[in-house]
Fold this sequence. Notes:
There is one protein chain. The protein has a 6-stranded parallel β-sheet with strand order 3-2-1-4-5-6, sandwiched between helices. By secondary structure, it is α/β, with parallel strands linked by helices. Helix 6 (about 195-205) crosses helix 7 (about 215-225) and helix 8 (about 240-250) packs across helix 9 (about 260-265). The chain has helices spanning about 15-35, 65-70, 75-90, 105-110, 145-155, 195-205, 215-225, 240-250, 260-265, 280-285, 310-315, 320-330, and strands spanning about 10, 40-45, 60-65, 95-100, 115-120, 135, 180, 205-210, 230-235, 250-255, 270-275, 290-295. The chain has 12 helices and 12 strands.
Amino acid sequence: MAKKQYKKILVVKPSSLGDIVHSLPFLNSIRKCFPDAKIHWIVAGGFDDLLVGHPMLDKLWVINKDQWKRLSAAGRTIKEFRGLYKDLKDEKYDLVVDLQGLLRSGLLTAATGSKTRVGFKEAREGSRLFYTHTVEGGRDIHAVERYLRVASFLGCGDTEVSFPLPMEPYPVPFEEDYAVLVPGARWKTKKWPASKFARLAARLPIKSIIVGGKSDRQIARQIADESRRKAISLAGKTTLKELSGIIRKARFVVTNDSGPMHLAAAHGVPVFALFGPTNPVTTGPYGRGHTVITAGVECSPCLKRRCDDLRCMEKISVDRVLEAIKNTIFRE
């Protein structure tokens, strides 16, 4: 598609944390490509903190995506969507880009009435029916590269990959170097055992900070209690911007396949990523200087959210992770 000078652009990318981080190079690219354009973004509540006040965005639309999934809230959802539909159409966007590629995001894209609506050919749940133009993103490349293919399609392909990440300071209780541990993940199958995180923390030559959301508090407390006073938990105590600030100052990060993993990679902090059911080629830490550790079992990656045999994570030993860290971070 020939490059045009768009005046008003909407990016539809409601979730999740890692996906939003992966979308930031796209935002950087189109902001530099269309410096005078107004750029808006649709984000789901819970992830909006990372984008509120972002200097590259002119407006943020926050939707209640979780409510939309509940049948009991169908009445409120319909009312909210009708209002949103009207408001989006009134904005008169001349370009809308759906980076999510699901039914809900497709409907929001269509609701704008924009004459130029761009999405992926591989978009799911019929969402591609709502686009005027489609881009072949590919299934075997990293998400960052997929999103940048859309930027290239719009004529913005020459921008250097950059992650414009906002962050806020948080009073870290350590004056010296520290590691960050991320024991949480959206899928149970992606979690390395808490006992192994604790043993790793106890053996590391520096102290550790355990981070995560409110749902990770119990597992984080267990790790801190079993770490021989080498780790503290800040799980559920930080905003996303504060989490970004904590990770930015870490010596390195040990993590499951999770949103904070992508924050660390975006900041250029060395990541030791523990992968089992998911594919590090497409969703691993982006960039150089990171280490992906797997158990090498034959069934991985299976992409299963549920499984009775978690050997792909359980067979990753503490010794192996510690050796990788020492050989990379603490080489003399």
